[in-house]
Amino acid sequence: MQRNNISWFEPRRGTESCDCYQDIWNQENLKGNQENLKENQENLKENQENLKGNQENLKENQENIKETCRDQKTVRAAPALLMGLGRRAAYLLQLAAARAHEHHRVLAVGVGRHGAHALRPVLVQRVALDDPQAPQRLVQDLAAEDASRLTEIKPSLCFSVASYAVDATQSLSIRSSASRDRVAVRDA
After folding, report:
1. Which residues form a coiled coil (predicted)?
2. Short-list 129, 143, 178, CA closest to 157
3. Whole-prediction pTM
């Protein structure tokens, strides 16, 4: 049966100007655009929070750099710092540095509230001593003990020494004591 060559897909006569389908299409696009806008706003908020965190990290890194510079100055001033600790404490720290060097360990001593200042054994120089025989006596006292058992040093003054890093897997502590003037040896 002939259908007068009219395509079923063509709009009927009188409906060519009807934009109902276009309105539906536009509404769907609008809805999609609104969802995209909402997602973009959430991404913007997240990026702003990340930026704030990065700025805080940058500020912290800058402070760490400043503190590192102060630490380096402290390391360079290590002999003078030891002079201020008193003769007995200077002996103990020097001896600790020598033993750390002897056992191929890394010496890191934390001084004061700023934490770890790296006092390398090479910088822990001999301090001028009133009694030249005192270091030898200390060495003789410790020679009878196993070197691996030395875990704590107690100078005879209240001084904040935070940490004594022996190697990557073990960390020991040097603590100050006003009541004892001895080298404490205990199992690691």
Report:
1. 27-68
2. 178
3. 0.29
User: Please, are residues 58 and 136 in contact by the beta-carbon 8 Å criterion?
Assistant: no
Q: Residue type for 143, please?
A: A
Looking up tokens 């502590």 gives 173
As given in the structure block, the two tokens for residue 51 are 């930026």
For the chain, 188 residues long, the average pLDDT of each consecutive 10-residue run is 49 55 81 92 92 86 69 43 46 54 37 30 31 45 37 31 28 33 32
Residue with tokens 């769907």: 28
| Residue ranges of domains in the chain | 15-76, 77-185
124 touches 161 (CB < 8 A)? no
Query: What is the distance between the alpha carbons of residues 175 and 163, in angstroms, rounded to a whole number?
Result: 8
Give the separation between CA 48 and CA 37, rounded to whole angstroms: 16
CA neighbor of 153 nearest in space, from 112, 96, 110, 109: 96
Taking the C-alpha atoms of residue 164 and residue 87, their distance in angstroms, rounded to an integer, is 20
